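Let's sit down with a protein and look at its sequence and fold side by side. Once you have written the record down, we can walk along the chain together.
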Amino acid sequence: MAQITISELAARLVAAGVETELVGAGDAELTGITEDSRRVGPGAVFCALRGTVGDGHDHIEGAVAAGAALVIAEERRTDAVPTILVPDSRIGTAHAAAAMHGDPSTELDLVGVTGTNGKTTIVTLLEHLGRHAGRNARSLGTLTGTLTTAAAPAFQATLRTLADDGADLVAAEVSSHALDQHRVDGTTFRLGLFTNLTQDHLDYHVDMDSYFDAKARLFTDGLCATAIIDTSTDAGRRMAERSTAPVIAVDAAAADVLEISSGSSTFRWRGHTVELPLGGRFNIANALLAAEAAAQLGIPEAVVVSGLATAPQVPGRFEWVGAGQPFGVVVDYSHTPASVAAAVDAAREITDGRVLLVFGAAGDRDPGKRPLMGAAAGGADVLYVTSDNPRTEDPDAIINDVLQGIDHHHVHREPDRRVAIHAAIAAADSDDLVVIAGKGHEDYQIIGTTRHDFDDRVVAREALAAIGHTTGEDSA
């Protein structure tokens, strides 16, 4: 935490272009910053954020009682300590957090990755490529935290910790929620990557235009120095046109693909033959964006190629589960219509048998995409429609919504996800491929308001054992 006083922090916000009014007397040195009144300590800044459920302004008095020395808010609610008044507390908080942590992003080659699908794989690949090149590389996102992108104070604190630990390259997933809520304002991304945009999160963003606008915030010259954008889709081409940062276009659909098998892909990049130990055309697209980013960060092309050849399996991303069985089992995080279709297409491309798909849709989330999920699953031979995280919704009602999009003769309805996985694996013949879609790396299932232990990979091995396959050998 940088040593900074109240007046110095107010001046930093003004310098960042935030409309600021400092009211109240006192100029204490600040010790921390948080938007959670329960975490306020002596000398801290309390940031009063308005949310969809609660309003942080209602907790200002409690924060002051806990020792807050300064409040950042949209209205003044206390005379006990100074308040920095700003038009939008989220913007003020983000810039204040960056300032209080000494602007850690300026000490890093920070890469922000956004888009509906592919973010986790790309940041994992970039971390791997950085380390392969001898750099102290790290990644942030779905696999490292409870939120894809943390709240601004936590995000800046993490960047400060990484910089102090000697990291010099950080690849971070940047969610649409984070961009819309200004969590990464005040951050300097050397590169911003865009993968794709398909229907998701419309329970929050309302419509696709709003979802696109949120993603587009990353590609402004105030946040991102250079944009690397997959322009193989309409959304990508539109994003490239919208970007105010210089754009490097990558047309993943035009990739020179030489071979795709169950657990590997071979393709050409910048004249080099790349052997990637990950299957699926979508992983070629992910690798192309990661490779281009690595090259822009100064990693030699030959090192990129050799690094991709040793890329790790990304947990829950088209991850093979093997126990010596004569058919394939894959667990994949695909939970949008486009990603389900891509997983089915990838499975179809690498198997001579049937594709058996286990999938569902989340409760308390964007019900409009459920029939689209059903339609996207139509390329599989046999469907097992089940629960994802039903949360407080009736699992049968969610399944009914998914079934509205399905025109398929081989559909099994089973709300119990464990039973559905067991049934699909028991029904698989030699050369078939079972795709268990939706939860990927997640090791829980939320039913009602209770979080239960549940890992698709563990349950798949349990199902394989039940039919006599226990060797632990990868069937890929």
